[in-house]
């Protein structure tokens, strides 16, 4: 590949074709990487939550963020803040796992704030109140210098069991 030219998709839009690792970091051309999450997929809310949780459990929050981003862009206007907030939590976890404490904490807190209006209603069974607590706890932990977190071990549970 001629690295002086920009990668383009079939429509001519700029797209980075470099492989990526499980946290979405670009790898050198030709290196084995993790399969990318397809973009622009329209899923039901149930499918979105299920796929995002699968990716979070696998330690791939960057990819989960892309699933939430699809829902944010394709879903009803009234739910955009929900999906955007969840995407920010996933990106915050991504940054925290990469060792970027400042960016990780900032995005975790921003995502938690975006979700606040949904805390009492558990949309699609999502435990928003628990996610807000998780995000605040993780943000506090990463800013005190605990080092990178384990993306899989520290992944949130989107749908906690109903008591």
Helix content: 40-55%
Shape: globular
The main β sheet shows up as:
none
Unreliable residue stretches: none
Number of discrete helical segments: 5
Mean pLDDT: 89
The helix/strand series, from N terminus to C terminus, equals HHHHH
How many beta-strand elements?
Answer: 0
How much is the radius of gyration in Å? 16 Å
**Distance separating the two termini:** 55 Å
State which percent range the strand residues make up: under 5%
- Based on secondary structure, the structural category is mainly alpha
Question: How is the topology of this model organized?
Answer:
Blueprint: H1 45-57, H2 61-74, H3 80-98, H4 101-115, H5 128-143
Helix pairs in contact: 1-2, 2-3, 3-4, 3-5, 4-5
Keywords for this entry:
5 helices; 163 residues; mainly alpha; 0% strand; 47% helix; globular
Task: Give a written overview of the molecule.
This protein is mainly α. It is 47% helix and 0% strand. The chain contains five helices and no strands. It has helices at residues 45-57, 61-74, 80-98, 101-115, 128-143. The radius of gyration is 16 Å and the shape is globular. The mean pLDDT is 89.
Summarize the structure.
By secondary structure, this protein is mainly alpha-helical. The protein has helices at 45-57, 61-74, 80-98, 101-115, 128-143.
């Amino acid at each position: 590949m001629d690295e002086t030219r920009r990668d383009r998709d079939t429509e001519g839009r700029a797209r980075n074709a470099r492989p990526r690792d499980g946290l979405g970091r670009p790898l050198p051309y030709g290196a084995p990487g993790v399969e990318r999450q397809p973009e622009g997929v329209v899923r039901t809310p149930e499918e979105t939550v299920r796929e995002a949780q699968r990716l979070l459990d696998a330690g791939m929050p960057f990819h989960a963020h892309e699933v939430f981003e699809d829902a944010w862009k394709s879903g009803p206007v009234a739910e955009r803040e929900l999906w955007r907030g969840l995407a920010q939590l996933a990106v915050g976890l991504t940054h925290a796992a990469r060792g970027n404490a400042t960016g990780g904490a900032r995005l975790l807190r921003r995502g938690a704030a975006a979700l606040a209006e949904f805390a009492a209603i558990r949309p699609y069974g999502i435990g928003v109140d628990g996610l807000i607590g998780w995000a605040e706890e993780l943000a506090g932990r990463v800013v005190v210098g605990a080092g990178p977190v384990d993306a899989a071990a520290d992944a949130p549970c989107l749908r906690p069991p109903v008591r």
